[in-house]
Amino acid sequence: RKFHCNPYLTFPNDVVVNSQEEIFISDNKDHCVKVFDYQGNYLRQIGGEGVTNFPIGVCLTVSGEILVADNNKKVNITVFSQAGELLGALESPVKHAKLFDVAITMDGSVIIASKDCRIHMYKYKYLYGIF
User: Comparing C-alpha atoms, which of 5, 96, 21, 84 is closest to residue 52?
Assistant: First the structure.
């Protein structure tokens, strides 16, 4: 099965799905995450310019929160509910080379891959809003 999402996406660069058969696609040039169902219907947008400026990746935590990695100046991770409610924002204490992807481990570590062939791991501490 496939569907065309050209009217909604300008530069898709990562994808994740949830258990409700929703597809979350980060869109770098449109500065957000677009959500579709498995039939290809556009459902909603999460984030936007000024919140998720240049998203390079999207992933889900074990508790269902959406993490959007942003490659604008420093590493920014914006945390949303699956409905799109902004829950928090995290910023790395240092600048990294251009980032390519983000993932989260079962223990809550955020892993990012960068252009300089490095893998960076940060402990996700949502309650404190820091890495």
Answer: 84
Spatial distance between the Cα atoms of 32 and 1, rounded to a whole number of angstroms:
25
Express each pLDDT in 12-41 by its tens digit.
999 999 999 999 999 999 999 999 999 999
CA 84 – CA 115 distance, rounded (Å)? 29
Q: What would the pLDDT profile of 73-88 be if each residue is shown by its tens digit? A: 666 788 899 899 998 8
Confidence grade of residue 129 (pLDDT, cut at 50, 70, 90): very low
**What DSSP letter does each residue of the chain carry, written as one string?**
-----TTT-SSEEEEEE-TTSEEEEEETTTTEEEEEETT--EEEEE--TTTSSSEEEEEE-TTS-EEEEE-SSS-EEEEE-TT--EEEEEE-SS--SPEEEEEE-TTSEEEEEETTS-EEEEE-BGGGTB-
